[in-house]
Automatic annotation (TrEMBL):
<dbReference type="Pfam" id="PF00512">
    <property type="entry name" value="HisKA"/>
</dbReference>
<feature type="transmembrane region" description="Helical">
    <location>
        <begin position="6"/>
        <end position="29"/>
    </location>
</feature>
<feature type="region of interest" description="Disordered">
    <location>
        <begin position="536"/>
        <end position="557"/>
    </location>
</feature>
<dbReference type="InterPro" id="IPR003661">
    <property type="entry name" value="HisK_dim/P_dom"/>
</dbReference>
<keyword id="KW-1003">Cell membrane</keyword>
<keyword id="KW-0067">ATP-binding</keyword>
<dbReference type="Pfam" id="PF00672">
    <property type="entry name" value="HAMP"/>
</dbReference>
<protein>
    <recommendedName>
        <fullName>histidine kinase</fullName>
        <ecNumber>2.7.13.3</ecNumber>
    </recommendedName>
</protein>
<keyword id="KW-0812">Transmembrane</keyword>
<dbReference type="GO" id="GO:0005524">
    <property type="term" value="F:ATP binding"/>
</dbReference>
<keyword id="KW-1133">Transmembrane helix</keyword>
<dbReference type="InterPro" id="IPR050980">
    <property type="entry name" value="2C_sensor_his_kinase"/>
</dbReference>
<dbReference type="InterPro" id="IPR036097">
    <property type="entry name" value="HisK_dim/P_sf"/>
</dbReference>
<dbReference type="GO" id="GO:0000155">
    <property type="term" value="F:phosphorelay sensor kinase activity"/>
</dbReference>
<dbReference type="Pfam" id="PF02518">
    <property type="entry name" value="HATPase_c"/>
</dbReference>
<feature type="transmembrane region" description="Helical">
    <location>
        <begin position="238"/>
        <end position="260"/>
    </location>
</feature>
<feature type="domain" description="Histidine kinase">
    <location>
        <begin position="321"/>
        <end position="535"/>
    </location>
</feature>
Amino acid sequence: MFKHSIFLRIYAGLVILVVLVALFGYLLVQIINYQRAQEYRESLTDGIAFIISEGVARQPNAQQKIDWISDASDLLELPIYYVKSDKVELTRAERRRINDRRAVVRWDAQTSVAYIVLGLKDDPDHYLYIKADNLTERQMKALPVFILDYLVYYPGQEKEYLAKIQSHFSYPIGIESVQSLPLDSEQIGRLRLDHSIILYRDSASIRGTTISIVSPIPSSTSEVLVMGPVPLFNWMPFQLAAGITLLSLFVLSLGVYGLLLPLQRKLREVSYALNKMKSGNLSMRLEIDGKDEMALLASSYNKMSDHIQRLIESQRELMRAVSHELRTPVARIRFAMEMLADEDDYEYRLQQVEQIDKDIEALNTLIDEIMTYAKLEQGTPSLDFEQVILYDVLDQVVVETEALKTQKKIELLPMPENFVVDAERRYLHRVIQNLVGNAIRYCDERIVVSGGLDYQGQAYICVEDDGAGIPEEDRQRIFEAFSRLDDSRTRASGGYGLGLSIVSRIAFWFGGTITVDESPTLGGARFTMSWPPHRYRKKNKHKSSDEHKEEVPLIEP
């Protein structure tokens, strides 16, 4: 069903496309956030790495450096190792960070442990190796201790040196007045007891939630050291959400264009073909690809082109044939009129008048045949289908034909006399009449007429004769207008080559077919027309039960 409907395919494609774009956006967010998280971790540790490196560098000998590192490990409650640099394998990017006196952070997502490598000032042979498996509030409050320890060496110049090392920190650090901070009395009391405090700020702005670490300065009672505000890591900031949304919409629009591109291409082909048809070129045909609506449109266009081309060719052939057929009786009438003008013999004049009358009758018959053929050849003739007893129509034609005293034996084979088919009686009678008349014209002495229901469930009528039959290579040509195998145009041959063509068109509009082959019993030609015995009917619900009529839509084959 999906492959037969282009719209269902588009809808299904859109659903799949949305799922793929959502998956693509999710994976892209994960990849971007992986890098963002790494940069965030490194940015938080860069400043402290610099301060710790400065603290170690100030120690005069190796033992004091080890003791300082041990005290720092106890303060942070994190294991800190003083290791040789050749025991730590670093990438080129990590070595560049070490040379810039920044931290290298290696994050293990499975264990949620961060391994931090710090370079040491004036000691390229050693690194500090820190294993941070958990960051507690106590560890956060211990961070200002390292900054204050660094500032001890610059009494009275604390603010100036904080400004110098600010470039190593991704968040602001500074010395501020206690009164300028939004602190309550309890927080101020804790500061007076030399306790650090942490301030949380939840903002609806782009920065989101931030934390600040406020630590008292031993040499001052009115000023404090403030680290922050430090924004917490946001997995979906506005910039990232907007970028991913725009990128997803762009990819989605490309996918939608890809889904609609085949439809656009096929519509362009149909438009091009219609423009060609408008200019008079009916030879172009569309390629039928698949079984969807566009394939049906292409098939309908091809059928329409075939039908229009056939109508035009039929009209041309009809004009040529009509002009030829009309010239013969008209010429005979003109010749007879000239003979009448020069003839005084009364009997001879009566014969000529009789011949003229026959030619006029022939002209009337020809015009009637042409009008019937033209009516059936047009787009969709109006057919009034009804339930017809097939035996009655066959028997009527046999009786009418026998009344003509043709000296030919016509036999109607037995069949159920109550067998009912859906057909227009007038045209069904015309088919049987034309087939029987054609058989009389070319048979030797015997004709067999039959009808009923074949093994495929189709209604059929069959007319056989014992004549010479029709060569296999000519069996399709005989259904063309004005086609006669003997090429005779005399009155003795009878007909104008329209009878079988009319039968073919009636069969077409009945939704059936007409075929000719060799009669297995008589040896001559056997004409068989088959069509659906019953057609779709819809009751008229707006009428009373006594006035219900059946509406029979035309079913094109």
